[in-house]
Amino acid sequence: MDSVLSQIISVTFLVTFIRSVTPLLLTGLGGLFSERSGVVNIALDGLIIFGALAGAVVTQVTEPRLGALAPWLGWVTGALVAGFIAWIHAVLSIKYRADQVISGTAINLLASGVPSVILAALYGTSTESPKVNNPLPLWGVGDLKFSPPVYFAALMVPVAWYVLYRTPYGLRLRATGEQPGAAASMGVNVQRMRYSAVILSGLLGGTAGVFMSIGNLSAYTRNMSAGMGFIALAALIFGQWKPLGVLGATLLFGFLQALSLTLDGRDILPSSLVTVLPYLITILVLVFTGRSAAPKALGKPYGDH
């Protein structure tokens, strides 16, 4: 037990913890914008996968010419691709007023199959892309070095708070998620606000995927999200749809993931229990948290009346 505690109180565990939190935080904040506007975004896991795939493929294809600039192009491309996928979800949910959960589920199903097809067409394998020679750089001091999306995720917390609570855009966004009819009567374009919020969730979810493929690792592997989008969605609910709440929830889930990695292979707990620990806690949190603080218009289509 003492050896486990010494590992937890170590730089290695801290690095693992921060790297576990980053994709959860980015995706959770993306989901925050979408759901604050009134659009359920269960497609977060799919957005991570599409972003991770696009980031890795573009980096691998362009690095012979661009060198160290390639991963930056991969980051932008991964975010934009996920933003485009989120736009599809927005069109189905907002313009055609489709069931938002079904639309998001369809995107997740696409994310489980489309990457394999693309990988097979490009590289002759359906499981992973070739490793890139130029992943995103590591910034920091000593052993505490992280790729740029880590710092971007930390920056996005105060930015998200400021945008939501201190800007006209944030006021209109929250109004569209609570009382879209009243917001429209005050001149707010509800559809436009929801489109912008859902696309923003895609950009942030795609950045989370880019971090996983070329910021933390150096290639895309099949289903590398490992349900991260669903845990981020749980963190959003646990955090009561607030930026600081999402931060606190993702810190908790990130700690559990880092702990499961630390305990894996040890005889303290059964290995199967160690692996499932973060997901088990996620389910328990959802059971006891509920959706009491959800935006009132969440999941309810809005059209011209």
Care to describe what's here?
There is one protein chain. The chain has 305 residues and is mainly α. It has a single domain (12-289), classed as ABC transporter involved in vitamin B12 uptake, BtuC. It is built from twelve helices and two strands, in the order H-H-H-H-H-E-E-H-H-H-H-H-H-H. Strands 1-2 form a two-stranded antiparallel ribbon. The termini are far apart. The mean pLDDT is 90.
Which helices and strands, and how do they pair?
Elements: H1 2-8, H2 11-36, H3 44-66, H4 70-95, H5 100-123, E1 139-141, E2 144-146, H6 148-166, H7 168-178, H8 180-185, H9 190-216, H10 228-238, H11 243-263, H12 271-289
Antiparallel strand pairs: 1-2
Helix pairs in contact: 2-6, 2-9, 2-10, 2-11, 3-4, 3-5, 3-9, 3-10, 4-5, 4-9, 6-7, 7-9, 10-11, 10-12, 11-12
The fraction of residues assigned to DSSP E strands is: under 5%
Mean pLDDT: 90
What is the chains' assembly state?
A: single chain
Class by alpha and beta content = mainly alpha
The main sheet orders its strands as: 1-2
Keywords, separated by commas or semicolons:
305 residues, mainly alpha, ABC transporter involved in vitamin B12 uptake, BtuC, two-stranded antiparallel sheet, 12 helices, 2 strands
